[in-house]
Amino acid sequence: MFSSAFDSRTVHLILVGLFFMVVSFYVGTLFSSSHTVLVGSGDTIPSTPSKGDLQYTNRVALIYRTKSVTIPESGVNICPLKFNEYIPCHDASYLTKLLPKLDTSREEQLESHCPQLEDRLFCLVPPPVDYKIPIKWPLSRDYVWRSNVNHSHLAEVKGGQNWVHEKDKLWWFPGGGTHFKHGATEYIERLGNMTTNETGDLRSTGVVQVLDIGCGVASFSAYLQPLDIQTMSFAPKDGHENQIQFALERGIGAMISVLATKQLPFPRRSFEMVHCSRCRVDWHANDGILLKEVDRLLRPHGYFVYSAPPVYRKDKDYLVIWQKLINLTTAMCWKLIAQQVQTAIWLKEDKDSCLLDNAKKNLLSICEPVEITIPQWQSPLRNCITLSEQFDFQKLPPRSDRLGVYSKILEKLGVSPEMYELNTKFWKEQVSQYWKLIGINTVDIRNVMDMNACYGGFSVALSNLPIWVMNIVPATMSNTLSAIYDRGLIGAFHDWCNPFSTYPRTYDLLHAYHLLSHYQSGERSCSIEDILLEMDRIIRPQGYIIIRDEDSLVLRIKGIAPKFLWDVSLHMLENEEKKMEPVLICRKKFWTIV
Questions:
Q1: Any transmembrane segments, and where (predicted)?
Q2: Are 275 and 187 in contact (CB under 8 A)?
Q3: Which residue stretches of 230-317 are H helix?
Q4: Angle 587-119-503 (CA atoms, 0-180°, nearest 5)?
């Protein structure tokens, strides 16, 4: 009887049906959460909805990207709550699949590894339970809401070094670090004394831009700001969980990155100082290839600051490591200028003759020239040193005069001084217009990203405000980031077809000037919806997104933006050609899952 009721065809159909039910479950098309999406208007949202609260139709469902993007009428789906810290290109579950192919001896697993589209979530990343609008700068330097970064590991393992302490509903940052547990101010003063023979501070040595490797919670950067020193801080997403999230929540410029197998996403000769305080980098390993990356990034007469056990400890293998460092830096023609307490400082001397002599002795290799107008993006590390003669070196003025510097690379790119000046003037006018359109107090904005920064004019126009700007130059465009660094600003290369290496909810303002149309044409094209989804991931609740682009694109975005739970208003402003163009002002609603 059973055999007649369940013949092979019937069994096959049942199995197929079960298969589609399971698939539908995982993509959220059949079973989805019954949670409510609640929108608030203040700094917090109640944990339970009440009569009169705004509720939206966006479903809570785990949705993966499909070949063609279709946004439901109910709005973009919302990821389940456990994905509130989702970073697509640093996703542990995806990384597990890649591990057998990665060189873990060189920490390749800590680099950015972006999934294929079909392996990426296509849903809005929710805030954590009890998320609050971040504390404003400058108070945020010292205090952030505990519930916004609800991780205690760093406080437990680094509390004795004064990285971070728990204080009621807050995290408190006393300003300490592994090698400056008594405070970054004292440490920074010591570095100034070491580089000036006790006669001045870091400003007097010409330090304007610093790269802080393995920055922890970025207190070093925070306490360089009174000296008007701009710092690009980075650290990997590793056992020191959420250190970059802490830094950004504090309002300090930082990103997820690591020195492993690829060049860092910064132009050559961008920093007067590279800093490593117990940064967990084996500088002596692999023929010093990581030190050679530091050399690429340092300007002539720049400093490498190293605070770590090999400098001062004589036990274990530290003496051997120190001798290797001495041999490597000597071969690279760096000069050890100071060694005090737990810190050593080298000066990168501008001596091509020394490098050529050492190359003849087979102590190092000289790099073949590369085209400097092309961004260094996802390029393998080079085990060689670049000669100064390969560059048209430009002596830069002090910080106060650097914002107006016309970089020599602009001439190579066909940008005249007149075009550059007009661009600077244009952005000063546009920023003034933006504030009128947004209509908020500028102290409400701290973390800003210019997603297509060009020459950095937008950032310069904000330079008189208590704001820092991450200037992004798309890797598919020309290298104008060198010009941005020559102006004393910071930023990185990035390809917006991939998510950015940062935590969710880290920026107060995103600026996208003719970015989306760039990715709709040319060799590197990608979906507008994917870029909008990434914007939503990295913008804070109640944060602003300014989009300027071609008319048809702006109108298209205006139509779909509300499905991302954004408020939208359309305006018209003059572009650089004095023609009117549409400007979309979007504001992310403050919503939560209840």
A1: 12-31
A2: no
A3: 243-250, 289-297, 309-312
A4: 40
Determine contact, residues 330/295, Cβ cutoff 8 Å.
Answer: no
Closest CA to 289 of 365, 368, 377, 209: 365
CA distances from 156 to 188, 345, 553 (A): 25, 31, 49
Directed axis angle between helix 528-538 and helix 551-560, to 10°?
60
Q: What is the C-alpha separation between 90 and 258, in angstroms, rounded?
A: 12
Round to whole Å and give the CA distance between 561 and 546. Answer: 12
Burial class, 108, CB count within 10 angstroms (exposed 0-12 / middle 13-18 / buried 19+)? middle
- Could you say which DSSP state residue 136 is in? P
What pLDDT digit, counting tens, does each position of 127-169 carry? Answer: 999 999 999 999 999 999 999 999 888 878 877 788 899 999 9
Tokens of 231: 């710092």
β partners of residue 232: 211
Q: What are 56-72's pLDDT values in tens digits? A: 889 999 999 998 898 99
Strands (E), 379-438: none
Q: What is the pTM of this model?
A: 0.92
Tell whether the model's pLDDT for residue 98 goes beyond 70: yes
DSSP 179: T
